[in-house]
Amino acid sequence: MDFTFFIGIDVSKDELDFAVQRGRELLFHREVTNQPNQIKAFLKELDKILGFKLSSTVFCMEHTGVYCNHLLNVLHKKNASISLEAATHIRNSQGNIRGKNDKIDSIRIASYAYKNREELRLWKPKRAVIQQISHFSAMRLRLIEAKKMLTVPLIENGPFLNKKEAKDNNRLCSATLRAIQADIEKTEKALNSIIDKDPELKKLFDIITSVEGIGLVTAVQVIISTNEFKDINNPKKFASYSGVAPFTDDSGRVVKKARVSHMANKKMKTLLHMAALTAIRYNSDLKQFYKRKVEIEKKNKMLVINAIRNKLILRIFACVNQNKKYEKNYQRLVA
Predict the structure, then answer these.
(1) In terms of pLDDT, which residue wins out, 148 or 334?
(2) Which end of the chain is more exposed for a tag (fewer CB within 10 A), N or C?
(3) SS3 annotation, 12-35
(4) What global pTM score does this model have?
Protein backbone atom coordinates (compact mmCIF):
# COMPACT_ATOMS: atom_id res chain seq x y z
CA MET A 1 0.00 0.00 0.00
CA ASP A 2 1.05 3.59 -0.62
CA PHE A 3 1.00 5.60 2.59
CA THR A 4 1.15 9.38 2.84
CA PHE A 5 0.99 9.78 6.61
CA PHE A 6 3.19 7.88 9.06
CA ILE A 7 2.26 7.98 12.74
CA GLY A 8 4.75 6.65 15.28
CA ILE A 9 3.38 5.82 18.71
CA ASP A 10 5.32 5.31 21.92
CA VAL A 11 3.08 3.22 24.18
CA SER A 12 3.26 3.17 27.97
CA LYS A 13 0.84 2.14 30.69
CA ASP A 14 -0.64 5.62 31.22
CA GLU A 15 0.36 7.70 28.18
CA LEU A 16 0.52 7.49 24.39
CA ASP A 17 2.94 9.71 22.46
CA PHE A 18 1.99 10.30 18.81
CA ALA A 19 4.44 11.65 16.22
CA VAL A 20 2.66 12.55 12.96
CA GLN A 21 4.64 12.67 9.73
CA ARG A 22 3.58 13.53 6.18
CA GLY A 23 6.18 11.65 4.21
CA ARG A 24 9.50 12.44 5.89
CA GLU A 25 8.18 15.77 7.26
CA LEU A 26 7.31 15.82 10.98
CA LEU A 27 4.04 17.73 11.45
CA PHE A 28 3.54 17.58 15.19
CA HIS A 29 3.77 15.55 18.39
CA ARG A 30 0.89 14.90 20.75
CA GLU A 31 0.65 13.16 24.13
CA VAL A 32 -2.68 11.67 25.24
CA THR A 33 -3.91 9.43 28.04
CA ASN A 34 -3.97 5.72 27.24
CA GLN A 35 -7.79 5.56 27.25
CA PRO A 36 -10.21 4.80 24.37
CA ASN A 37 -12.02 8.16 24.55
CA GLN A 38 -8.72 10.07 24.37
CA ILE A 39 -7.56 7.98 21.41
CA LYS A 40 -10.83 8.65 19.57
CA ALA A 41 -10.45 12.38 20.25
CA PHE A 42 -6.95 12.31 18.74
CA LEU A 43 -8.24 10.57 15.60
CA LYS A 44 -10.79 13.37 15.19
CA GLU A 45 -7.93 15.87 15.47
CA LEU A 46 -6.16 14.09 12.61
CA ASP A 47 -9.20 14.62 10.36
CA LYS A 48 -8.52 18.38 10.51
CA ILE A 49 -5.14 18.00 8.77
CA LEU A 50 -5.29 19.10 5.16
CA GLY A 51 -5.29 16.07 2.87
CA PHE A 52 -5.48 13.55 5.70
CA LYS A 53 -7.12 10.21 4.93
CA LEU A 54 -7.16 7.24 7.27
CA SER A 55 -6.85 4.91 4.28
CA SER A 56 -3.48 6.46 3.36
CA THR A 57 -2.12 6.38 6.94
CA VAL A 58 -0.14 3.75 8.80
CA PHE A 59 0.11 3.63 12.60
CA CYS A 60 3.37 2.08 13.82
CA MET A 61 4.15 1.08 17.40
CA GLU A 62 6.30 -1.28 19.43
CA HIS A 63 4.75 -4.42 20.87
CA THR A 64 4.24 -3.67 24.59
CA GLY A 65 1.73 -6.39 25.49
CA VAL A 66 -1.60 -5.40 27.05
CA TYR A 67 -0.66 -1.69 27.10
CA CYS A 68 -1.39 -1.64 23.34
CA ASN A 69 -4.89 -3.09 23.69
CA HIS A 70 -6.95 0.14 23.88
CA LEU A 71 -5.10 1.60 20.91
CA LEU A 72 -5.33 -1.57 18.81
CA ASN A 73 -9.05 -2.01 19.51
CA VAL A 74 -9.91 1.58 18.53
CA LEU A 75 -7.75 1.53 15.38
CA HIS A 76 -8.99 -1.90 14.30
CA LYS A 77 -12.63 -0.78 14.54
CA LYS A 78 -11.71 2.12 12.24
CA ASN A 79 -10.10 -0.33 9.76
CA ALA A 80 -6.80 1.52 10.14
CA SER A 81 -3.51 0.11 8.86
CA ILE A 82 -1.39 -0.94 11.85
CA SER A 83 2.22 -2.07 12.06
CA LEU A 84 3.14 -3.75 15.34
CA GLU A 85 6.90 -4.22 15.51
CA ALA A 86 9.30 -5.73 18.04
CA ALA A 87 11.13 -3.04 20.01
CA THR A 88 14.52 -4.64 19.29
CA HIS A 89 13.81 -4.65 15.56
CA ILE A 90 13.11 -0.91 15.52
CA ARG A 91 16.07 -0.15 17.79
CA ASN A 92 18.55 -2.22 15.76
CA SER A 93 17.45 -0.56 12.52
CA GLN A 94 18.46 2.90 13.78
CA GLY A 95 22.17 2.38 14.43
CA ASN A 96 23.84 4.19 17.31
CA ILE A 97 21.34 6.52 18.98
CA ARG A 98 21.77 9.01 21.80
CA GLY A 99 19.12 10.43 24.07
CA LYS A 100 15.77 8.92 24.87
CA ASN A 101 12.34 10.03 26.02
CA ASP A 102 8.77 9.25 24.99
CA LYS A 103 8.55 12.10 22.48
CA ILE A 104 11.86 11.23 20.81
CA ASP A 105 10.90 7.53 20.71
CA SER A 106 7.59 8.27 18.95
CA ILE A 107 9.41 10.39 16.35
CA ARG A 108 11.95 7.61 15.80
CA ILE A 109 9.13 5.09 15.31
CA ALA A 110 7.42 7.37 12.77
CA SER A 111 10.74 7.74 10.94
CA TYR A 112 11.22 3.96 11.01
CA ALA A 113 7.76 3.49 9.47
CA TYR A 114 8.56 5.94 6.66
CA LYS A 115 11.99 4.46 5.87
CA ASN A 116 10.64 0.89 5.88
CA ARG A 117 7.26 1.66 4.29
CA GLU A 118 7.69 -0.94 1.55
CA GLU A 119 8.50 -3.76 4.00
CA LEU A 120 6.01 -3.01 6.79
CA ARG A 121 3.87 -5.97 7.79
CA LEU A 122 0.35 -4.94 8.70
CA TRP A 123 -1.03 -6.29 11.95
CA LYS A 124 -4.07 -8.55 12.00
CA PRO A 125 -5.80 -9.41 15.29
CA LYS A 126 -5.62 -12.94 16.59
CA ARG A 127 -8.83 -14.87 17.08
CA ALA A 128 -10.47 -14.17 20.44
CA VAL A 129 -9.89 -17.75 21.56
CA ILE A 130 -6.12 -17.42 20.91
CA GLN A 131 -6.02 -14.21 22.94
CA GLN A 132 -7.88 -15.98 25.73
CA ILE A 133 -5.51 -18.95 25.96
CA SER A 134 -2.62 -16.49 25.77
CA HIS A 135 -3.89 -14.69 28.88
CA PHE A 136 -4.50 -17.97 30.72
CA SER A 137 -1.07 -19.30 29.77
CA ALA A 138 0.56 -16.12 31.12
CA MET A 139 -1.47 -16.43 34.33
CA ARG A 140 -0.33 -20.04 34.76
CA LEU A 141 3.30 -18.97 34.38
CA ARG A 142 2.89 -16.25 37.02
CA LEU A 143 1.36 -18.77 39.43
CA ILE A 144 4.27 -21.14 38.87
CA GLU A 145 6.74 -18.31 39.53
CA ALA A 146 4.88 -17.43 42.75
CA LYS A 147 5.06 -21.05 43.88
CA LYS A 148 8.77 -21.19 43.02
CA MET A 149 9.46 -18.04 45.09
CA LEU A 150 8.12 -19.83 48.15
CA THR A 151 9.37 -23.39 47.62
CA VAL A 152 13.00 -22.66 46.65
CA PRO A 153 13.91 -20.81 49.90
CA LEU A 154 12.21 -23.54 51.95
CA ILE A 155 14.30 -26.22 50.24
CA GLU A 156 17.58 -24.27 50.30
CA ASN A 157 17.27 -22.98 53.88
CA GLY A 158 16.00 -26.25 55.36
CA PRO A 159 19.41 -27.94 55.88
CA PHE A 160 20.74 -24.86 57.73
CA LEU A 161 17.88 -24.64 60.24
CA ASN A 162 17.02 -26.87 63.16
CA LYS A 163 14.19 -29.32 62.56
CA LYS A 164 11.59 -27.28 64.45
CA GLU A 165 12.30 -24.06 62.55
CA ALA A 166 12.26 -25.88 59.20
CA LYS A 167 9.00 -27.59 60.09
CA ASP A 168 7.41 -24.32 61.20
CA ASN A 169 8.44 -22.60 57.95
CA ASN A 170 6.90 -25.38 55.89
CA ARG A 171 3.71 -25.34 57.97
CA LEU A 172 3.27 -21.57 57.60
CA CYS A 173 3.54 -21.77 53.82
CA SER A 174 1.65 -25.02 53.28
CA ALA A 175 -1.84 -23.49 52.89
CA THR A 176 -0.57 -20.89 50.42
CA LEU A 177 1.30 -23.49 48.37
CA ARG A 178 -1.76 -25.75 48.25
CA ALA A 179 -3.90 -22.81 47.12
CA ILE A 180 -1.41 -21.84 44.40
CA GLN A 181 -1.20 -25.44 43.17
CA ALA A 182 -5.00 -25.61 43.08
CA ASP A 183 -5.09 -22.41 41.00
CA ILE A 184 -2.48 -23.83 38.61
CA GLU A 185 -4.63 -26.93 38.11
CA LYS A 186 -7.76 -24.81 37.60
CA THR A 187 -5.94 -22.73 34.99
CA GLU A 188 -4.83 -25.86 33.14
CA LYS A 189 -8.41 -27.20 33.20
CA ALA A 190 -9.63 -23.87 31.84
CA LEU A 191 -7.09 -24.09 29.02
CA ASN A 192 -8.22 -27.62 28.18
CA SER A 193 -11.86 -26.53 28.27
CA ILE A 194 -11.25 -23.64 25.86
CA ILE A 195 -9.37 -25.92 23.46
CA ASP A 196 -12.05 -28.64 23.57
CA LYS A 197 -14.82 -26.14 22.75
CA ASP A 198 -13.11 -24.81 19.61
CA PRO A 199 -13.03 -27.48 16.85
CA GLU A 200 -10.27 -25.79 14.83
CA LEU A 201 -8.07 -25.29 17.88
CA LYS A 202 -8.79 -28.82 19.19
CA LYS A 203 -7.73 -30.39 15.91
CA LEU A 204 -4.50 -28.38 15.82
CA PHE A 205 -3.78 -29.17 19.48
CA ASP A 206 -4.28 -32.93 18.92
CA ILE A 207 -1.88 -32.87 15.97
CA ILE A 208 0.86 -31.06 17.90
CA THR A 209 0.58 -33.19 21.05
CA SER A 210 0.78 -36.37 18.95
CA VAL A 211 4.52 -35.62 18.69
CA GLU A 212 6.15 -37.41 21.62
CA GLY A 213 7.57 -34.96 24.15
CA ILE A 214 5.07 -32.18 23.38
CA GLY A 215 2.56 -31.62 26.18
CA LEU A 216 -0.25 -29.19 26.96
CA VAL A 217 1.87 -26.18 27.90
CA THR A 218 4.32 -26.47 25.00
CA ALA A 219 1.54 -27.05 22.46
CA VAL A 220 -0.40 -24.03 23.71
CA GLN A 221 2.70 -21.82 23.51
CA VAL A 222 3.49 -23.02 19.98
CA ILE A 223 -0.07 -22.15 18.89
CA ILE A 224 0.13 -18.72 20.55
CA SER A 225 3.60 -17.92 19.18
CA THR A 226 2.72 -18.88 15.61
CA ASN A 227 -0.87 -17.54 15.79
CA GLU A 228 -2.18 -20.96 14.75
CA PHE A 229 0.68 -21.19 12.21
CA LYS A 230 -0.64 -18.14 10.32
CA ASP A 231 2.21 -15.76 11.25
CA ILE A 232 4.95 -18.41 11.29
CA ASN A 233 4.42 -21.41 9.00
CA ASN A 234 8.04 -22.34 8.34
CA PRO A 235 10.01 -24.60 10.74
CA LYS A 236 13.32 -22.79 10.06
CA LYS A 237 11.74 -19.44 10.87
CA PHE A 238 10.24 -20.84 14.07
CA ALA A 239 13.57 -22.40 15.05
CA SER A 240 15.18 -18.97 14.65
CA TYR A 241 12.35 -17.33 16.61
CA SER A 242 12.83 -19.87 19.42
CA GLY A 243 16.61 -19.49 19.61
CA VAL A 244 17.21 -23.05 18.40
CA ALA A 245 18.70 -22.40 14.94
CA PRO A 246 22.52 -21.98 14.98
CA PHE A 247 24.07 -19.07 13.07
CA THR A 248 27.60 -18.71 11.72
CA ASP A 249 29.79 -15.72 12.59
CA ASP A 250 32.66 -15.87 10.11
CA SER A 251 34.86 -13.03 8.91
CA GLY A 252 37.66 -13.52 6.39
CA ARG A 253 39.87 -16.34 7.58
CA VAL A 254 38.30 -16.35 11.03
CA VAL A 255 35.84 -19.24 11.11
CA LYS A 256 33.89 -19.58 14.34
CA LYS A 257 31.64 -22.35 15.56
CA ALA A 258 27.97 -21.79 14.68
CA ARG A 259 25.98 -20.74 17.75
CA VAL A 260 22.37 -20.06 18.60
CA SER A 261 21.32 -16.43 19.01
CA HIS A 262 20.36 -14.86 22.33
CA MET A 263 17.66 -12.86 20.52
CA ALA A 264 14.84 -15.36 20.94
CA ASN A 265 11.60 -16.13 22.70
CA LYS A 266 13.18 -17.49 25.88
CA LYS A 267 9.90 -18.93 27.15
CA MET A 268 9.46 -20.97 23.98
CA LYS A 269 13.10 -22.06 24.05
CA THR A 270 12.77 -23.31 27.65
CA LEU A 271 9.61 -25.27 26.83
CA LEU A 272 11.27 -26.89 23.80
CA HIS A 273 14.26 -27.79 25.99
CA MET A 274 11.98 -29.56 28.49
CA ALA A 275 10.15 -31.25 25.61
CA ALA A 276 13.48 -32.50 24.22
CA LEU A 277 14.44 -33.99 27.60
CA THR A 278 11.07 -35.75 27.78
CA ALA A 279 11.43 -37.03 24.21
CA ILE A 280 14.88 -38.45 25.01
CA ARG A 281 13.31 -40.51 27.80
CA TYR A 282 10.20 -41.78 26.03
CA ASN A 283 10.87 -41.73 22.27
CA SER A 284 13.02 -44.69 21.25
CA ASP A 285 14.36 -43.08 18.05
CA LEU A 286 15.43 -39.85 19.77
CA LYS A 287 16.78 -41.82 22.73
CA GLN A 288 19.02 -43.84 20.40
CA PHE A 289 20.02 -40.68 18.52
CA TYR A 290 21.03 -39.00 21.81
CA LYS A 291 23.05 -42.00 23.01
CA ARG A 292 24.84 -42.40 19.68
CA LYS A 293 25.82 -38.75 19.48
CA VAL A 294 26.86 -38.38 23.13
CA GLU A 295 28.29 -41.78 24.06
CA ILE A 296 29.78 -42.96 20.76
CA GLU A 297 30.53 -39.78 18.79
CA LYS A 298 31.33 -37.82 21.99
CA LYS A 299 29.32 -34.76 20.94
CA ASN A 300 28.52 -31.99 23.41
CA LYS A 301 25.29 -32.82 25.28
CA MET A 302 23.72 -29.38 24.81
CA LEU A 303 24.55 -29.52 21.09
CA VAL A 304 22.70 -32.82 20.79
CA ILE A 305 19.74 -31.59 22.85
CA ASN A 306 19.51 -28.56 20.57
CA ALA A 307 19.46 -30.91 17.55
CA ILE A 308 16.56 -32.78 19.18
CA ARG A 309 14.73 -29.50 19.73
CA ASN A 310 15.10 -28.89 16.01
CA LYS A 311 13.80 -32.37 15.23
CA LEU A 312 10.71 -31.73 17.38
CA ILE A 313 10.04 -28.45 15.55
CA LEU A 314 10.38 -30.19 12.17
CA ARG A 315 7.98 -32.94 13.27
CA ILE A 316 5.41 -30.45 14.57
CA PHE A 317 5.42 -28.39 11.37
CA ALA A 318 5.43 -31.48 9.12
CA CYS A 319 2.35 -32.84 10.89
CA VAL A 320 0.54 -29.49 10.86
CA ASN A 321 1.33 -28.86 7.18
CA GLN A 322 0.11 -32.35 6.27
CA ASN A 323 -2.89 -32.00 8.61
CA LYS A 324 -2.25 -35.38 10.24
CA LYS A 325 -1.06 -36.74 13.56
CA TYR A 326 2.51 -37.92 14.05
CA GLU A 327 3.07 -41.58 13.10
CA LYS A 328 5.76 -43.16 15.20
CA ASN A 329 6.50 -45.97 12.72
CA TYR A 330 5.92 -43.91 9.58
CA GLN A 331 7.56 -45.30 6.44
CA ARG A 332 7.97 -43.15 3.36
CA LEU A 333 6.43 -44.60 0.23
CA VAL A 334 8.93 -45.23 -2.54
CA ALA A 335 7.61 -44.77 -6.09
Answers:
(1) 148
(2) C
(3) CCCEEEEEEEECCEEEEEEEEECC
(4) 0.83
